Structures are given as structure tokens and as C-alpha cells.
Amino acid sequence: MNKVTHIVSIGMLLAGSACQDLEHSRQVDNPQVRGKTIALQVCSNCHGVNGVSVSPTFPKLAGQRKEYLVDQLTDFKSHSRADPNAQRFMWGFTHLTDAQIDELATYFSSQPAVLGEASDLALINEGNAIYHSGLPDKGVSACMACHGQHGEGINQFPRLAGQHADYVMKQLKVFQQSDTRPRGAVMKAVCANMSDRDMRAVAAYVEVFPPEGEASVSPADDR
Ligand code: HEC
Ligand code: HEC
């Protein structure tokens, strides 16, 4: 198939369907379509053109570690990441080739990450302490040890900085209460004894990721 035909066929797939309609994404099953094209025409409907999603149902992908993205897309493809939202929204992408997965991961990992807006500073400060020191009494390890000083992640350890708090909270629950994430054993151990409040606090912290000390500087600052 030549390039023009590709563009036309993608255009036709997109044409008849509303943006939120999942069906067209299941039909972009041509192995010749470039990852970036899929990113812009399909993934963008939920994750944003630059990987900065608006709704916390959809995780931000901008600046996420490439290796982590490859792992997750591979796990969705094999249906081994199996929490309800993964099934509902991501299980359709079984047709992605390894090359397309690689290109998609390259595209989203190279987009600039965007931090969220701070709201509840007391909660954020609590989360800051958990992120950097863990909760030794409860056997909760410091998140920083694996997710990086600035929440930037490394290789298979995902970036957390900027991620929607509600999504982070939800995934912590998935790790704690299920075995539906195939690479989740480490995280299951980390959050085994975390309370809802602990999870909410650390989730609120990573979404805004204020520089060291900033959150405690002036609670009056309504940043
Ligand atoms: C219809 C909406 C929708 C579309 C289209 C969509 N996604 Fe997703 N995606 C989701 C949802 C919802 C989740 C979160 C699943 C969960 O809660 O486990 C997700 C999760 C992910 C994750 C895991 C992120 C993380 O932080 O663990 C990756 C990677 C991903 N999507 C990549 C893509 C790519 C690449 C495409 C295009 C091929 C795409 N998505 C298209 C809704 C969508
Ligand atoms: C020993 C290393 C380690 C520690 C400590 C750790 N994590 Fe993780 N975390 C991981 C790994 C590895 C993954 C990827 C799991 C996967 O691929 O499913 C992960 C995934 C996550 C995810 C899912 C991200 C996404 O986009 O879906 C969240 C949220 C998370 N960790 C939060 C935390 C928090 C909060 C802490 C501290 C309380 C923490 N982690 C401590 C290793 C760690």
C-alpha cells in the first residue's frame, strides 16, 4: 500500500466516528502505519496529542520512560495487564507490532512532562515525607529509591512526577488489592500496608512534585 492510500484509509476510519468512539482505533491494524501517526490519530483521543491528558481516567504519557511504555503496551497487547480500565480501554490494541510499540514509546517519552497544580498543601507535605522517607513503621519503602529524586523514573521504573493524582491513587489500589498488573509484585509489597490517606497524600505530592521544601514554605501561597 502506498503512503497516500494509508492516509486515505486512516482518514476514512476516523471520518465516520465520533472522537470518543473506540471502534476506529481497533481498525488501525495496518502494520505499515507509523507509530507517530497512530499516536496523533488514535492515542491522542484519550491521552492528548502530546501525551498530556486532561481527564485523570487517562494517564499522562508525556515524558514517561520509554522502557516502561514498551512494557505496558506489550502487557496490554497480551492481555496480561488486566484491571478493568485496562481491559475496557487498552485491550483492543492487539494489532500493534513491536516496531509500532517502539515508535509509540519513543514518541510519548520524548514529549515534555507537565506537572499538575497544587491544591491541598497539608496533604502534599504528608506525601512529600512518604515519597522521600517511606513509612518505616508500616514497612513502606521510600518511593524515591526506585522512582527517582525528582519522580522522573528510570528505565522500567515509571515517571510519577506530573501524573494525575486520581490515576496514581487508583493504580496503588490495583497493586494493593489485585494481581492484575503482571509486573506489579514489587509495588504490591511496597503498598501492602498503606492506608487510603497515605495513598492519597503521596498521589497528591507526585502530581505537583514541588521542588524540595517548597510545599512547606508558605501554606498561604495559593499556587
Ligand atoms: C479510549 C481511550 C484510550 C485510547 C484511545 C488509548 N488509551 Fe491508553 N489508556 C487508557 C486508559 C483508561 C488507561 C489506564 C488503564 C488503567 O487504568 O489501567 C490507559 C493506559 C495506557 C498506558 C499505561 C500508562 C501507565 O502509566 O501505566 C499506556 C502506555 C497507554 N495507555 C498507551 C496508549 C497508546 C500508545 C495508545 C494508542 C495506540 C492508547 N494508549 C490509546 C485509555 C486509552
Ligand atoms: C523497589 C522499587 C520501588 C519502590 C520502592 C516503589 N516503586 Fe512504584 N513501581 C516500581 C515498579 C518496578 C513499577 C512498574 C510496575 C509495572 O510495570 O507494572 C512501579 C509502578 C508504580 C506506579 C504505577 C505507575 C503508572 O503509571 O501506572 C505507581 C503509581 C507507583 N509505582 C507508585 C509508587 C509509590 C507511591 C511508591 C512509594 C510509596 C513507590 N511506587 C515505590 C517500583 C517501585
TrEMBL record:
<feature type="domain" description="Cytochrome c">
    <location>
        <begin position="30"/>
        <end position="112"/>
    </location>
</feature>
<dbReference type="InterPro" id="IPR050597">
    <property type="entry name" value="Cytochrome_c_Oxidase_Subunit"/>
</dbReference>
<keyword id="KW-0574">Periplasm</keyword>
<keyword id="KW-0479">Metal-binding</keyword>
<keyword id="KW-0408">Iron</keyword>
<protein>
    <submittedName>
        <fullName>C-type cytochrome</fullName>
    </submittedName>
</protein>
<dbReference type="Pfam" id="PF00034">
    <property type="entry name" value="Cytochrom_C"/>
</dbReference>
<feature type="domain" description="Cytochrome c">
    <location>
        <begin position="122"/>
        <end position="210"/>
    </location>
</feature>
<keyword id="KW-0813">Transport</keyword>
<dbReference type="InterPro" id="IPR009056">
    <property type="entry name" value="Cyt_c-like_dom"/>
</dbReference>
<dbReference type="InterPro" id="IPR036909">
    <property type="entry name" value="Cyt_c-like_dom_sf"/>
</dbReference>
<dbReference type="InterPro" id="IPR024167">
    <property type="entry name" value="Cytochrome_c4-like"/>
</dbReference>
<keyword id="KW-0349">Heme</keyword>
<keyword id="KW-0249">Electron transport</keyword>
